[in-house]
């Protein structure tokens, strides 16, 4: 996902939201596509899964993104002994009032970085997935709404499977996007070293010059605008055809569901709008297909043994399904 030049009109919330990329770049070298993905998540009210090895600036990026939007952010490390109440909050006894009061868990924030989500057992994973969907925590029957916006950014290490609990497809489906956080190329890594050599301190984002450049109001206006993005029937048909093609691919044992198709539609609209268009083109759909569908399909074991990847299959699907013109 790479974006062309942004819009220019001052009243356009896109201008403010485009500034986010430059602001995050004051702390993070590269990883532009991840910033765009997080923005799509916020615009679509969809959560984001980040897959990457440790040390590629996932945490730094989310912190800088939160600072540039002036949003509250919390990081929660998912460990084998984490309990559902450690995520959502729990009732605690208050001896003075001789009553139970609710102590909010870390989900009561705008951006929750759920680190290494597959290191925690299914029960605690489910607690998080439930609040992701419902955007509220129910304790003793009384619902408590989460702040707005609320975005979960969960991380997963692609190389570590020992002692982990992989999320089942039904739960992965709740993430709008799955983004791969790549290792930097040589020039980018040089840039990281230069910044550190010159005194960049990842703990001090304000010192690095990261300032709030967009507001919750810009986000809300952006969300409204995305809702007005047009999609002609031919493009809707293209999205359906792509998803249907994943269901008959000989390399896949599980294709994208209709929920996956609706996710692809939503992400395409947000992408089109961020890119400066008021309607979705087939190229907008193509641009987000991998990140929207890669976690919603499953390779056949034979294909996996042959070393085929899900992204290769999705590229093949994009190459074979006729593009409407
Ligand atoms: N692309 C990058 N830009 C700037 N700093 C980076 C980058 N990649 C790694 N670093 C440095 O390495 C650290 C990686 O830490 P962190 O954000 O915790 O990574 P992760 O969460 O992916 O494990 C950063 O704090 C920063 O010092
Ligand atoms: Mg981290």
TrEMBL record:
The protein's name is: AAA+ ATPase domain-containing protein
Gene3D superfamilies, per this entry? Magnesium chelatase subunit I, C-Terminal domain, P-loop containing nucleotide triphosphate hydrolases
| Pfam families documented for this protein | AAA_3, AAA_lid_2
Q: Which InterPro entries match?
A: AAA+_ATPase, ATPase_AAA-3, CbbQ/NirQ/NorQ/GpvN, ChlI/MoxR_AAA_lid, P-loop_NTPase
Give the AAA+ ATPase domain ranges.
Answer: 44-185
Q: Which PANTHER family match?
A: MAGNESIUM-CHELATASE SUBUNIT CHLD, MOXR FAMILY PROTEIN
**Per its UniProt record, what SMART domains does this chain match?**
AAA
Q: From which domain of life does this come?
A: Bacteria
């Amino acid at each position: 996902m790479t974006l062309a030049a942004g819009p220019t009109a001052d009243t356009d919330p896109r201008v403010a939201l485009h500034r986010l990329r430059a602001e995050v770049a004051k702390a993070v070298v590269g990883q532009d596509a991840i910033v765009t993905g997080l923005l799509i998540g916020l615009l679509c009210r969809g959560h984001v899964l980040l897959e990457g090895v440790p040390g590629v600036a996932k945490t730094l990026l989310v912190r800088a993104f939160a600072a540039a939007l002036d949003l509250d952010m919390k990081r929660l490390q998912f460990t084998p002994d984490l309990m559902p109440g450690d995520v959502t909050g729990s009732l605690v006894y208050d001896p003075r009032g001789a009553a139970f009061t609710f102590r909010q868990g870390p989900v009561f924030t705008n951006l929750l970085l759920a680190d290494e989500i597959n290191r925690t057992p299914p029960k605690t994973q489910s607690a998080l997935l439930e609040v992701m969907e419902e955007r509220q925590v129910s304790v003793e029957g009384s619902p408590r709404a989460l702040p707005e916006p609320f975005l979960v950014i969960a991380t997963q290490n692609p190389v570590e499977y020992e002692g982990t609990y992989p999320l089942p497809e039904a739960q992965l489906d709740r993430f709008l996007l799955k983004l791969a956080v790549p290792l930097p190329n040589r020039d980018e890594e040089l840039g990281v070293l230069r910044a550190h050599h010159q005194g960049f301190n990842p703990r001090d984002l304000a010192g690095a010059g990261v300032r709030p450049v967009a507001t919750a109001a810009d986000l809300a206006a952006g969300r409204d605008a995305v809702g007005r993005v047009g999609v002609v029937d031919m493009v809707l048909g293209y999205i359906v055809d792509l998803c249907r093609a994943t269901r008959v691919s000989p390399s896949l044992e599980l294709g994208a569901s209709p929920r996956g198709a609706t996710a692809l539609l939503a992400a395409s609209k947000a992408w089109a709008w961020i890119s400066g268009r008021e309607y979705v083109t087939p190229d907008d759909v193509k641009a987000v297909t991998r990140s929207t569908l890669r976690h919603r399909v499953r390779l056949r074991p034979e294909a996996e043994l042959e070393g085929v990847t899900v992204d290769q299959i999705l590229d093949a699907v994009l190459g074979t399904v006729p593009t409407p013109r």
